[in-house]
Amino acid sequence: MDLVQILSLPLIQFFSATTAAYVLCALGIAMQFGFTGLLNFGQAAFAAVGAYAYAIGDLFLHFGPIGSLAFAVICATGFSFVLGIPTLRLRADYLAIVTIAASETFRLLMTSGQLGPWTGGTEGLDSVGNAYYKMNPIPQGIYNVLGIPLTEKQLWSDLTGWSTVVVCALIMLVLTRSPWGRALKGIREDEDALKSLGKNTFAYKMQALTIGGIFGAFGGIVFSIDSQTVQPTVFGTNFTFMCWTLLLLGGAATVLGPIAGGMVFFVVFLFLQHLLQGLQGVGILPFMTQDQASQIPFVVMGVTLMLLVIFKPQGFFGNKKETQING
Amino acid sequence: MSQLLKVARPGNRFIPSLVLFAMLAVAFSALFGATSAQAATAECKPHDVSAAFMVEGTLIDNDKPVVGAKILITGEGFNACGITDDSGYFIIDAPKAGKYVASIDTTTLPAGVKISTEGNQQAVDLISTNDQSVLFPLGAGASTATSFLDQLTGYAFQGLNFGLMLAICSLGVSLIFGTTGFSNFAHGETVTLGALLTWFLSVALHWPILIAAAVTIVLVAGYGIGQNKYIWRPLRKRRLGLNQTMIVSIGFAMALRYLFLILFNGDTKDLSGNTQQITFGAIHTTNIALISMVICVITLAAIAFFLTRTRIGKATRAVSDNAALASATGIDIESIISIVWLIAAGTTAVAGILFGLQYQANYLTGANILLLMFAATTLGGLGTAMGTTVGALVIGMVVQVSAIWIPTDLTFATALVILILTLLVRPQGILGKKQRLG
Amino acid sequence: MADLIAKGTIEPGCQKVDPILIADSVSRSFGGNKAVDVAHLEIPRGKITALIGPNGAGKTTLFNLLTGFDKPDTGTWNFEGRNLAGVAPYKVARIGMIRTFQLTKALSLLTVLDNMRLGAQTNPGEKIFASLIRPIWAKQEAEITERAETLLKRFKLDTKAADYAAALSGGQRKLLEMARALMGNPKLVMLDEPMAGVNPALTQSLLDHIKGLKANGTTVLFVEHDMHMVRHISDWVVVMAEGKIVAEGPPADVMKNPAVIDAYLGAHADSDLGDVR
Ligand SMILES: Nc1ncnc2c1ncn2[C@@H]1O[C@H](COP(=O)(O)OP(=O)(O)OP(=O)(O)O)[C@@H](O)[C@H]1O
Ligand SMILES: [Mg+2]
Predict the structure, then answer these.
(1) Partner B contacted by A101 (CB < 8 A)
(2) Domain boundary residue among B140, B164, B197?
(3) Which of A6, A137, B101, B276 suits B188 as a labelling partner, its CA being 20 to 30 A distant?
(4) Predicted ipTM of the assembly
């Protein structure tokens, strides 16, 4: 058991592009749930739509990085309309049901042999983002960031991920502090009250769902550019639940919450995983295999999500008064 | 209403449920008892109904089916075989999309039945379709591809079978929603638990399937009561919002899923000990499937009887209709909810067991059909038992029959389409009431 | 006075000289119970109309129907000649018909001032793209805030402006909701029991405010159980019982109407009909 490794490996996650990807998805859910009260249990699908649309635009349609990004945004918007139009006039659980159903269905659709030429079927796609990495202005070399050696490619991808986070967080900050954001908070609490004041609540909910979905799509794109692949298995329900956990850790109705939550979450999660694997390695968990030991953190994550919602709904950064979202 | 006042008496509140499960156990034993003596014969792997890619056909020689012939498929670094049944029909699962070659093991052909060397090398293309019919030109006659009507009959039968199972697990979602207003996203895991526990008891511990199934039902029913008592009831007491409760349920689902993964590993468990192919005309099925359908019908009938004829059942419906009113008439809502959880988990365990027996099971089995359960309850009307049954039958049927036109790995997508269309056209569902939309 | 409002004989469902809202055969049943069954109703423009009736008469349900929050089984109605049947609630409010709720819907997780600002209907910052650029909406927002503060003062809530609405008492929430509705500059304001739970000392000032609204040309329709108040400020009274309009007229006449006394006594004999008896 190498203690140094157990402690230092997770720290890489602190500012990795993968963390940024999850944070983006969580920011999206914060927009939808934290500020508007919408339950999106299919953020993985928005991420997948973003990732696949970007990859297909990049690899097959030759839209270039900017064009592919725009294409992904259009697809995510369309997806949000397909999910939102039937559900946003109804009680909150219908959106939850439809999003979780759509997320599983979309993943199955992407693995289907029929779409293989476009999606790579179960194998997924690779070489995603080659065009983007050509734009990398950082000279070749190994860079030492807080003691962690990174290639210029990794650095570029991490920078991309986190600058997207910063841009999205700023947009969200401005939006949620504007009169538009005030209307969202009103809807979160009592939709009928807002209707009686002449607010088109359906349109607001649709807008919040779409913005959150686009943030999710950005998350998917960052994820796939970082790994240079798009794999359908990544975008299972776990992806969504992980986003919810780190969101609620930080605080659902905050902008900084998901960011801090994401950093803390991955460091703790990976630390736990490495620790358990290490313990198993030295025979402290005799009745378990290495694989089983590394799955324990997922159980912990599920339980953490439950406990957070029940005992600390405002998360560690939220304002208790403002987050008693009922419904 | 006054008769409802008495339901809160603690002494007898679980008795009707126990009777229900005793009936089920008897049904299981009667049906499995009849078949347990029969031995498994398959030397080739039996067809898995959930398989994504398959090759099928019927061997006919001079208008007579060729029985017991062995068909082989090879390709993509893989080979598999199938044996023709009494009607000459065979079906072989392929692991993935690709190009294969199908041939008959000529040593298994009855005397007098001949096939030319080139006729015995049939190309199978599982890239543009998932379900390829193969024709072997035999001697004077020729084998026939499955006709459309036969295909339809076959799939419709599978749809009925699948829909019945879906109905008993969706009823759990529906009953819980009806009485508490809570959509349980961890319900899929109850199905998984039923399937995996039975596997553990019957395959790993070598218990007889009947005892394993009965013990599973009891344990899972207890798990339902415990879940309500230690998680959902305290949350109701805390007046946690429904949205938050749903988020708790996804956390719970995730924790359970990985717990199952740790306890049972990720591989697919085969429960189907003594499966035998049975053919009626165009319907190719198994003894297990038939038993499963009978058990589902009995379960559904038992639930219908419970809800319409017993005092607690009537109280349950009163709570679903209007909890405040029911409470005002003296019904103890919490004890009704306990009973609902007991029944929901117990019947869902039955579904899980049947699922495992027919389609195999792994730690994601229930999670994978959660979409179908929600589609079924929404289509039928959230919170109505009758509606859920109808919805589940429709979804089961559509998911299976659509395989005629669309690749089998996409048939689940039809459920999403139905779900969205339902919400657009009639959000309260076929039999739901408008007020529930809130 | 009465003949300035009604046209022809004064009877349930009678025509008005200048109606702002006209409803025809509006009905709604819950199960077998016909909660609303209004054959014809006209609300006079620029006047204060009280809608009274015993508990369960269908007043709130009628409000819900007219403002689009509930769908009627039958019926049409129009507001200033504009058909409103089937129109979404938010559009009804934008057209100028703003209602309050009997069970208050103060947004308790927002501040009192934010509640008020939400009542304004012409804030460009409520549009998603415009909201991103502060200069587009800053001026309007300031005007809205100023108006909100003036109204809050009137409703004696100015000291609470920065508090979360959760901190308000029941009566204060009622006041906030009424003030918030007025932020939208309604042509017709529909108040469902606005004075329930409000401190009597404040009631008088609010009644004056309502009268002031009338002076500015706003039409008021309100539901109230306090007959003293009804007598005091209303120009016209409509009486509902068991879903139907059973009487109409100027307050003094209506309260002498046997049908009204019957409706109230039939429902609950201890009801106080003001200085009628
Ligand atoms: N959502 C509903 N479901 C079933 N019945 C309802 C519903 N809303 C109202 N009712 C019934 O309709 C009738 C009219 O109710 P409504 O609330 O309109 O009366 P109201 O005149 O406003 O009474 P109050 O003076 O007590 O406020 C009552 O009998 C009530 O029980
Ligand atoms: Mg009322």
Answers:
(1) yes
(2) B140
(3) B276
(4) 0.92
